[in-house]
User: Fold these one by one.
Assistant:
Number 1:
Amino acid sequence: MHSSRYIFTIILKCSTLTLSLGQTWSFAHAEHIAFNTDFLKDKTDEIAINALNYGHTLEPGIYEFSLSINQRYIGKRSIRFVETQEHQVEPCFDQTFIDQNQILFINPEQQQINAQGCYDLTAIADAQIETHIGQSQLALTLPQVNLVQKPRGFVSPKEFNQGIHAIILNYSANTSYYHNRGESNHYNNSLFLNGGFNFGPWRYRNNSSFTQYSGEKSRWQSSSNKLERDLQTKIPTRLEIGDSFSSSDVFDSFNFRGVQFSSDSMQLPNSLQNYAPIIQGTAQSNASVEIRQNGYLVYSTHVAPGHFTIRDLYAANDSGDLEVSVIESDGQIRKFIQPYSSVPNMVRPHQAKFQFTAGQYRSGNDQKYHPYFGQLSYAYGVNNYITPYTGMIIGDDYYAGAAGLAFALGYLGSLSTDLTYAHNKTSQGESKDGVSIRFLYAKSLNSLGTNFRLVGYRYSSQDYYSFSDAMQERAQWKDGLYEYSYQSDYLNHPSNAEQRRQYFYSPTYYNKRNQFSASINQELGSFGQLYLTLAKTDFWQKEYNQENWQIGYNKNFNRFSYGMFYQHSKSMLQNDENIFGLNLSVNLDRIPALRKYDLSSNNSYQHSDRLGDTFNSTLSGNFLEDKNLNAQIQVSHQEQNRSNQVALSSSYRGTKLNSSLAYTYSDQYQQASASIDGGILIHSGGLILGQQMFGNPILIEAKGAEGIRIENQTGLKIDRTGYAVISSSSAYNRNRVALRVDDLGQNRNIDMPIINDIVPTKNAVIKIKFDVKTGHSVLAKLNYQDRFIATASSIIDPITQKSVGLVGLEGQAYLTGVQSNQTLIAKWGNESFEQCQFTLPQLNDREMGYDEININCHAVEEH
């Protein structure tokens, strides 16, 4: 109680003095007023009051300040403060500051500079300078004519951080075990690896997989190897060597192994910049979803029963049809094709977009036909309305040329149209010359709540072959027939890809005739949202046409959300399927005792013309302090096999890895599955385990901060070695990392628990360091030559030259992060007679609170 009252008295005295000084602040600026300091007990306190006499709030020097210009945050900057002839301390806007922030002087009268090399920005009409010392903030307001105009979100390439040398390995291991009544048990195991190294600006990455199915030999496959880096030239570019994809701006995209040199829009500000498909489907049970592109497995996940949406296709290419397989718990498989191509972007006026690619064509389907090719595409923004683009491709007995125009139609949206001519020599030696015409349209009717995401149409003549079609035609020619492969809808071994594979032979190669795709979303205000997706491909052989379309409606109402949809799909060699569904979700946070668990109930009904009726009901919640443990229970009924099932599942997101478990019991089968995923980072400081690191990870070093959590990073803490890894950040944009200071406790302190302005390049590993002070907290009363130490004196660690405290009234100083028997220096000036030193005694070990001591300060010993 005594110490509490004493601290309260000190705070009260300091507050009174602060208020008194604050009231005189405006007068000190209005005219020079010398304050009578005779009332002070200690004459040395006149040093502390001199700053008030002259309006000082900090000494001249270099300080870290947050800079903003015209209310746009620029970032942390080192600002030099100087003392003027009027004894004011003001920021110095030197030539370096002017150049870095691209400030312009439009006439000689504005360009006023003093003897210290500082420009007077107040010479610019309407300029304002606001310095907030307490918040370390500097705000400038300048006329636009005095600034080089930068796009919103601009980050100078000088701030791009290539990161540290490092080795990265991401892993995802999955295992499933199936027991069907009356049949043999079976299993499948898989391991996906994505790893490589960073050396300066170079990035090497490899994607590999290991699969093991019942009754099959284990298989190891390396799907891609790539070395890449960015080139920060006048036009931002990227160099890729190895396995990659060509763009879809002019020609259809395809896999290749070779070299690619292209413009890189990622390095541009967000306001100057790309499309990844959103996959929507339905599951009858706890199901696995596999997505393949060009024969490669690019995505695998588990989904709950009902409607699902996949938005995070990490490995998806700019184009290339996606084969989506929904593998139900009982082994049934449903598949559909998601066509995927993006509208050629309108290029901004006087900007260019290009790509040069050369190498070997790679289909990804274990085919041994890998011809060499070269491809070039180019687009240039003539003005706000027209972007012409062109391209050419040359391969083995194949060449094609294309030209087109993209138009900005104002209120009518944007349209691109192009014509492609192609010559191909087929596997049977026939020469084929054909043309293809493409129209792509995009429009957002914001006033009506309508968004046409993608509307495209392509017509191809019967003798037209795209480059991919031409290569596939030759690869599929087998002994006078064309070989087509596909996977059957249902087998007893649902995850055994080879046993599901079926073959079909035909004397005809199926050429595409028409392709159409559209995605429309209509906002209905308080009445919900209506959406429609449609993709259709017609072949010259009509019986093999394929299509996939879905129409749906969603509505949110307080704690309820509900929706309905109808989906129709047909693949090239598989039967039609029609699904109708209803879903209802209820948030259960109205119950006070359950509110902290984020409990929700999801219920759905689906009718399929193949599977009949299916009912599902799921209860899920999040647990633990950081909500990083998810658990759910699901009950369902399926009409086709008259089965009832109960499924339990949980997932945990931890500092070192993520894990999940699931178990399904049915009167006809049982299924158990487990998975773990995480990442390994090797750097100069050792090896760190963490979550998967796919995009620009940030390595945090905070020695002494073990157990401290990271803001906005579920389950992530500083480990026992003093490190943590944030799995991803935004490339070429400013990122922020903050430690949760409420986890620090009494004997740890961090001067700067927040680090801003972290700008990684693509796939860089950025290392940041927090200076953590560990030690005791002390309330010391300091005396020097029978007097109190001057108010506002700094207490300095002579070894690190960092401040550990500040002297208040009556010689009181609160010190943090200090050690027993540590020698410290009190400074109230730069001269040797304006400082003294003292040594702390043996301090008590305590989790909370602080030691109170009286101590004498002595003259600094000269060495």
Note: The CA atoms of residues 174 and 675 lie 4 Å apart.
Number 2:
Amino acid sequence: MIQFSIVVPTLNESENIDLLLARLFALNIPSNTFEVIFVDDSSNDGTPDKIRAWQRHANVHLIERSGNPDLMASVLAGTDAAHSDIIVVMDADLSHPHEQLNALVEPLLHDHYDIVIGSRYIDGGGILGWTFYRHMLSRIGGWLARPFCDVSDATSGFFAFRRELATNISERARGYKILLEILMANGDNLRIKEIPILFRDRAHGTSKLSLSHQLVYLQRLMTLVGGSVSAGTAGRFAAVGLLGVLVDVLVFQWMISRETGLALAHIISFIVAVGVNYIMNATWSFRSSDGYSLQWNQFSRFFIVGALALLLRGGVLALFVYTLYVPPSLAIFPAIAVTALINYLGSAFYVFPNVLHLPSQNMRWRVAAIGVVAFCILLRLIYLGLAQLIPDEAYYWQYAQHMDLSFYDHPPMVAWLIWLSTAVFGDNEIGVRAGAFICSLIAMGFLYAYAKNLYDKSTALRTILLFSVLPMGFVSGFLMTPDAPLGAAWIAALYFMERALVANQQSAWLGMGIAFGLGLLSKYTLGLLGLAALVFVLLDPVARRWMGRPHPYLVLILALFIFSPVLIWNFQHDWASFAFQSTRHIANSHQFSVHFLLIYIMILLTPIGFIAVTLALIQNNSCKQEISHSGIQNRKRLFVQIMTGVPFLVFLVFSTFDHPKFHWTGPVWLAVLPTIAWMLVQPDGLNQFSRWLQRAWGHTITICLLIYALTLHYLVLGIPGVPYHLFTEHYFWRETTQMVEQITEEVRQQTGMEPIVVGMSKWSVASSLYFYNHARGDLDIRSRNLFGDTGAMYNYWFPSQPPTNRPIIQIGMRPKDIEHIRADDNLKQMLIRPGEIQYRTIRNNKVFLRRVYYRIAKGFKGLPT
């Protein structure tokens, strides 16, 4: 009885046939239990004759195909002719290890799996004899498929599968990666096993692999995941795109020549070009057999893709013009080239998808996750060095100019990261923010692993999607504040805690200690996660066993050791930082602020995210995962609830008597984010409201992307006709510093003395002026602590100023900031002959940006005694 059939596609493999069959029939497998089916693609070297010679005395069959050689068609033809329900696919070139044939088919014979794959890219596998170029081609092909297939080697040519799986393959399938077709055609419920194999380069003959095969593979992969991608659509899109580029460039050059401004010129030229592109793409480029008509729903999707491409290309244009000093007439070309790819992929997957072979909801979310996350990363990367620093970032940059073990109002991690990144990129915007960008990538890596452990790969991808688009994740990955390293350390601690407390992995305790130590060096808030871990251990009987082992106590010692710079600094400074963080709120008057806390959470998560968090915490969700013992689902659910609920309850109690900062709860929601992502594609057991919530996420993601891109474009290039009224106190510090430098120079000329510039805020005005003046370094800048009010770290950097006859220039964003520092203090008593409060209007290309208020005094009398 034939138990399995070996299908071997051939094309000019005459030198290998005898060796291959000799090895197969010499295996310790009864020869009457399998058959070998050769499918030959019109070989001209005598391959069919070699096979016919074996047919006389062995269970060998030959199928001869005519027409264009196609590996997939050959394998399917052999599968159709097979006499068994288990099919093994292998090459004829002796590259696949025939000795592992039994290991490949046994799991299927015992009905344990549906597919068994000989993998080159798992532990124990490998490749011998390939050039670096060919090895990289194979690796890249595998990497491209991994987000969509839950296997390590989706391009393997040595595998076994159940025959019925081939019936789901599309009739349009072509190419050389039959395994990919089987995996994609049969959904997410396949039982798959990978065994390691050592792949050897062919001993005889030449490889049939070429660049055209790789392009076909890429095109087929994109089609399988829902894109209208083919050589025809790509060619037509390119033709339409070239016409659009011509229209775009002509309109842009004409408007630039009329001095309309960079923003207006590129927006108008893009709108004209994209209108032409849409009409031609809808009626020609992506026309299906049924044809496409101009539909409003379709046009709205095209508008969204176009808007995102437009706003991103504004950043590319600004990057080339303002940073690389390329003339606008030339900079428009790389800007168009970068966004053309976004337009094409957006059109192929979102505007004109492959409706004839629409993939599953789960696969569509995977594709959306990859596209959205890539766009968010690219958007941040382009604008990272273009957007000016906000005062907080400038203040932390000053930390790095006064390096220390710790600081008064924050631990030192933010300063250390800025010091490191500015050493590489320089004291500029990208140098300050590079650490935040890297921290966001680290956070995404740990969040992916954490979500995959709780659920599965698909949920992990959706988790990264949500983290990338929600304000709590996008902003912390752009602005360099303590929240950036805190988020990375928080999710790393969650990952290691889940591995240690839920999965009982001893090695995870070391990672937990390092994550907690680094997190405490980032922000004291991470201590709340330690409190949550203690609560979980007390409530969970399995995790409670660790209390009798040394691991938790060694973790505590390790975390404190890493945290020791902060302890040393506080010891040297009378525990000032700890006192500031613990008593500053208690000393304030009581203010019930729960409503503000909830509003801030809605800002961080969006209203839809807030509703989803509530449902995720109260619904009886369980991890959709095969488990080896009962209770693991409940323990994972308890872990998520405790790691989210305990920190939130602390902030909730705090908000009953004091006002929280809007960003404080950001990292709290990292623990529950995978559960929200899991709920996105779980229709079973969810009520109608939950299903509505699933649909609402699509609109939320789109709106968030548009807001981020629009805001960054607005800050860097502006939006024609939209005034700058939203950022007058927290932005445009480069222009403000230039105005202050001008005022200071006027005072120098009038008095012949070097004035003292005093930023009339705790630290924001002084720090921003410091950053944007550091290249010239000709301003003597102080903070309001000069007049006896608190100035945070300025109390340490510039603790006092004796009476002086040097001119004093007070700088403030509002008149009241200059007049008073405290309700009972009149600054005029400390100043020598203070003048009237004045202001100057700051403009850029005749566009109003803000006002800066100032007052000039002849000197400083000193603090009142």
Note: The chain has four domains: 4-209, 231-359, 388-704, 733-860.
Number 3:
Amino acid sequence: MALRPFCCALLRRRSTLSAATALGSVAACLAISQPKTALAQFRPQPMHVNFQQRTSPDDPATFQADKVDYNDIEHTVTWTGNVQVWQGDRVLRADKIVYDRDTGLMAAHGNVATIQPDGSVIYAHYAELTGGMKDGIMLHVNSTMQDNAKLAANGMRRTGGKINDLSRVVYTACEICEKDKTRPPFWQFRAFNATQDLEHQKIDFRDTYLDVLGVPIIYLPYFSMTDPSAKRRSGFLMPGLTPHDRYLGAYITIPYYWVINQQSDMNVQALFATKTGPQLSGLYRNRLNFGQLSIRAGIAYDTHRAKMYTNNFGNEEESGGNHGLQGHVFINGDFSINKYWRAGANINYTSSANYMRDYRVQGYGADALSSNAYLEGFGTGSYARLDGQYYEGLNQGIIHNKDLPLVLPRYTYSFTGQPDMLGGRLSVNTTDFNVKRDNGVSDQRGELQLNWNRPFHTRMGQQFLLTLRLDSMVYRARKLYQQPAYYNTSRTSVTGQVLPTIALKTNWPFVRTFERGRGTQLIEPIVQGIYAPNTGNNGSDMIPNEDSMSYEFTDSTLFSLNRYQGTDRLDGGLRGNVGVHANWTWDGHIVDLLAGESFQQHITHDMIPYSGLDHHASDVVARARVIPSQYFDFTARMRLDPHKTKINFGDALFSAGVPHFRIRGGYIYEPVTPYYYFATNYRAYSPNQLYTTQTSELSGGVSVDWRNWHASGFSRRSLSRKNFVSLGGDIGYDNDCFAVDFMYLKQYTTIGGQQRNSTYLITISLKTLGAFGLK
């Protein structure tokens, strides 16, 4: 093995040079016929490529070969046997290389490979290179690129290290069959010629065919794509085509991606439809050192006009104006001020809900758009947040903007201290706000909640938790006769509430092992006693209600001090909660059970409809989770009225299957909808049937996959209303370089007087090229 660095001064005199002279004092470079003289100290070194620097013809080059022959008559140097030549950030390997010292030309024969600055590798049978390997020709070229992309050509001409002109080109990102390399890949582009622009990171094909399994299916006179080595590059993306839509008709989308700089970019899309005017939309993103900012916006000329319709309450409504110039702006930003404070905003606005429906703007189908701006801080055991909230109704006729609140400001603070000398922890919480409605209660609240917890245990293993809590709120409210309070008063009210609570909870876990220590069994009785003054539901005190519209008495709130969602309504009176928790775990099998009941001293019938607390002994709540094996799991919850032997709440989820196949299902039951307490004056009259109809829904799904195929289906049906809520399915195929997916979705929800029908979406993805969708 001969390892020799060399430099070439392209000496004009025809004198014989000894090998010792050439190795010891001659500086060489690979490029021009009359280069500048370059002198360097050479030493044997391993192969190294620096991808950060640019190669110059004057850079010293290093070679490694099994044998070196010098021909002083023809002024050539011939290297044979495992030849490697590298100069700057370019490397050349071959079985044999002949270097002409007069012209600076290198001729490489046999198993030629060149490593490019971007890391890609070009293979060839024969190559002639000059100019620091930046210029030359190659025959029978194969190139391995990023993301396993491959390019082959009969010949290639390189110019300036920036342009590669190729003839008879084939490009693919699919794997080549190892057993039969002549077998065509799953897909490939065949072109008469192509130009690879390394500087602008793109490849232009001319007279191109797209072959699938060796069969040509599409002809393209011209096709341009981003070079796989490019992480981001400005240019047009795959267009989208939809042959039919209820509001747009047939339409096409043309997206363009713009790389602004290293930290920001923009995606702009033009939409042209047959049934309405065009739309221009865009997404701007900026990733900053101290946060991020994204702006999604659009503008369109909508030719549709809103129509009157009868809503589910029997009222004539207008679905919302959308004729003429329309638009939307969605802004999201989060910014770190320092390590303790950060600020942000999520601003969403649209000119009309029907515009979002017509142009398929993201977010359509929700009841409302919500916006907020905030400032929040973090400390040791503490958290503070100051924000404002604004809502814009989308489902006009059901939710009107005048019914929605403006919350400005809203302040939240939470603090948890370190253990004190008695072994307890003190926590302080407050949520204060100002709420304004055009139609409905407008109120202000100030709150202070103090909580002290002291855990301890006995030698027998009993665990105790002593809790002392004080809730205090002050309110000022007007329009209490409107939703959601519906009080019989028209005056402005200033009132408040104070509720001290003491609670003691004990757990006594009994644990044993079985199956030779591989399994554990737990039986844990739980008892809790709570005392607080009985305050009823605070309705007689004219206290508004913003955060406690429903009473959640389930297994998850059995031992909660307050089982309302918030603090405008508080659980008072003397009550006791009992429960039993059992768990068996062994060899991956799990059985977990919980059952309990609450007993309260004070009862006010119909105070909280459908709460499960109509008697001194409450409904029984229970939960079961069973995982007998990795092929099945089941979770169910319920609330049972023991007096009427009636289930007042229940839900269940299960999943079962084997590898490559799985089914899932679920069921939920509630006596009324969640909107019942908010939109209904249930004290004065019977609410609308829309809210009193039981929530009884069944859902299910199945998924299967086998090798490169996958399929799934799902459905959701309301048993109480005897109709479907949604159903759909998906089937597709994917391999290492290609994917096709067909999706079907049907939604039955009626919004703005219009009900959506079926949606079909076909997506074809070619690796390194992108995805094309037909909807």
Note: The longest strand covers residues 442-457.
Number 4:
Amino acid sequence: MAGAVALTGVAALVVAAVPAGAVPAGPPVGPGEVVPGERTATPALVEGIREKADGTGSAADAARGHLAAGEGRYHIGDPQRDLRPVGTAGTGGREIVRLQQKHRGVDVLGGQYVVRMERKGGDRVVTGTSGKYFTGLTAGVEPGVDEALAVERAVDATTDRLLGKRLPRADAQPLTGKDRGLVVIPRGAGVLTRHVTVRGTHPVTGEPVLHEVYVDAQAGYPVLQYSGIKTFRTAAAGGAARRAAEEPGVKGSGVKKSGAKESGVKGSGVKYDGKTVELPVAYEESRTAYVLRDHTRMAGSSKNTLSTWDARGKDVSDVSGTWPYDIQEFGSPTPAFGPEATEAGAVDAHWAAGQVYDYYRQRHGRDSLDGRGMAVNSLVGVTQFGQPYINAFWDGTKMVYGAGDAEYRTLSAGLDVVGHEMTHGVVEHSANLVYAGQSGALNEAIADYFGNAVETDTYGIPTDSPDSGLLGESLCRNKPPRACATRDLNDGRTTSKSFLGVSFATDNGGVHLNSTIFSGALWDLREDLGNTLADRIVYKALTEYLTPLDGFTEGRAAVLAAARALNATGPQLRAAERAFSAHGIVPGWELATGVDSDQLLGRLNTDGVKTGAGGGWWAASKSNDDGTEPYSVWAGRADGTGAQKLMSPNDGRFHVHPATDGKTVVWLSYNRRSVDILARPIAGGPVKKLWSGRRGAVDLRVEGDVVVFESHPRPGRQLVRYLRLSDPTVVDVHDEHGLRTGYPSISHGRIAYGTIRGTGSARTYGVEVYDVQTGKRTEMGQLGTPAGIGQTAINGTHVYWLAPTDAESGFTALRRADLDGTRVTDLSPGGGPEALRGSDLVATDEAATVTAWTPATDFRNETLSKLWQFPADGKQRDRVSCNRGEQTWAAAPGGRQVVWLDGTTGYTDLVTRTRPAGRCD
């Protein structure tokens, strides 16, 4: 399943083939226009129709009846069986019905179809439909993998992704997983998966973790994973947290409150900007205090409240994924809330939540975030490890705002931030855009648009003001707005010049990195069409047209369709088209990105899978576009000549993480019982099983007859082991009790690896070399006291390794020693302006290549994972490639040539350069 890099995000990964004999939907019967779906017979959009529907039953039944009657247009065989109602929304006689696709009773990821109707009296008329219904699904739905194995592999995969090559904190607690049931990923005939939600605390940073992992239900391989955390700022800018479980008493009716006067009381408070504002509050008799609880806004509907809670002293991990029942609504002895409430961000959060509620109610007729009057709860003052948490997030039931510090105010001080987070709730209860890749960037873009719309309208900021597009500009205590802002909707970014292709491990596939491309187009639309019309168009597109897997191109189509439905004039429609075109959002925009590398294997459609190289050959995993072949291992010559060779069988297993020395390819094979190490000669011959384990292995290397790997027999245990192709008896490189060994490399019959002795704060780190022929171990010298250990690399004369310089920053030195452990030196410093955050390392006799990113307070192209090469003499360093996207999993076929996985085009491509590009301006 699916590409690691985010061209259309998850949408690029989940495409279904049209079944044999089917053709894309043609013109409908009667008037109207049809936009065919991609690789499905069901149209992506039908508009301009007025067709009668059953007016006597429910809206959902009428919608499904319309689809059944139009089988020749929609190609949905049995809508009553295969479409489950998700919800019906709309006002003024309009009915928007969302229907979730099911395949043989199992939900289809992103398979959602929308039917738009008008109702007057007892009559209904269908005015249009849109969405994704995948007609090519034929997969079985009986799982071969049980819940326990799926959870174990999901937790292992999440842990591996979070760690990278880093060591966990000494006090890190294991992550936990919960099986959510079966889900079909709509790729090819369909991939049956077990959906597992993994929660806990990041083993390195301590930030909250919530990952959605989809494990192939036949082979047990995690085919898709992404973070479910929705924050205002990227993780690089200060932490993250997101989606909570549905806690009793939290969802819908809100948290139970007692002893309060239900009638509203007018209170007041001073916002961070010094302005005194009116605050709806309530008197809590049991506390003899006034609390930040607004009974007034939903008094005429659900009777729910807008409440602001005092979470000072709570760690962010305590409030993500659960409700901390020992917190109380922020209180005051009088209705006038004082400086304590101001500094905690409680005044701003409570006031701003009311402004955002009013915007959606008055401008769009929406009652709260779910449209049905759900409670609005804001928690303020959370910290992280006792330190300020400079971020904010929506977790599925509430908003959470971190405490400020000497540089930043709490994020609730930004009305645009509050609007952004609450809009995530609106998105979740409408289009529910998957928070990864392009659909995730679309999610962020819409949250930015409406958050900024609320702020500019409330404060009377003209849309054409140069600063109108700034988000988070009011959060700094000392910086001017433009220097403080987190994002700018007027930054002019386009798909052709600014789109950053990254893996789901980086910013969830670029959800923040690429959001202003789309939100910038929306903001231009607001400038051209005016606040009222533009907001109505974008809101209508969100709530009536968009579905979970839509990306930029579908987003454009939804906005234009919504504009037509609102009777926008010709000039207005052309202005909308210009806004998207100016930002490069046009059909086929992906083809405009340029690279300075040569492609060896395009569109791998794999996620988080390593590459291998050696002896002038490369090896990589690939899945074909229609999904009929799970991950398979291919090999080819690094100079691009000759035919590529399929090394693994197409047998339903997932064949991943290959390594090669130019003569043999070894790889891991996932199945429902075990993870196996397999090998096959490039010249041909049978596939040989060398090793098998329940939890698998990492960092495979092969040289001649020797295969090296790192095994994890249980969580927290690392062992570097080797075996021979001629004798698959496993040998540990070290037998010292309690010693952990990891990050292996091999060259000239010697294995280099890192060592970890002791536990907790008493851990010590080192690097050793093991001679396979003689069994001799040689310890490398060190510079000072290492703060950790990273990947090793070895050639015929030197040992290289990444040496973390402290436990927090991620800075690493590139360290080199002679094979006897002497003449230790740093080729790249562990601190200062030239320092890198190295994550991976490979070497040949001519050069060492580091995969690294540079430190920054936010993600941008210059801070993404890039490749840096150091010649053997260490006298200079060069960028391997100036490509704009993320560069990962570098491997070295020989000399100074490097192959790697590149995300610049928006797909995962295996590319190469034979020499470094040098400096990149």
Note: The CA atoms of residues 90 and 221 lie 41 Å apart.
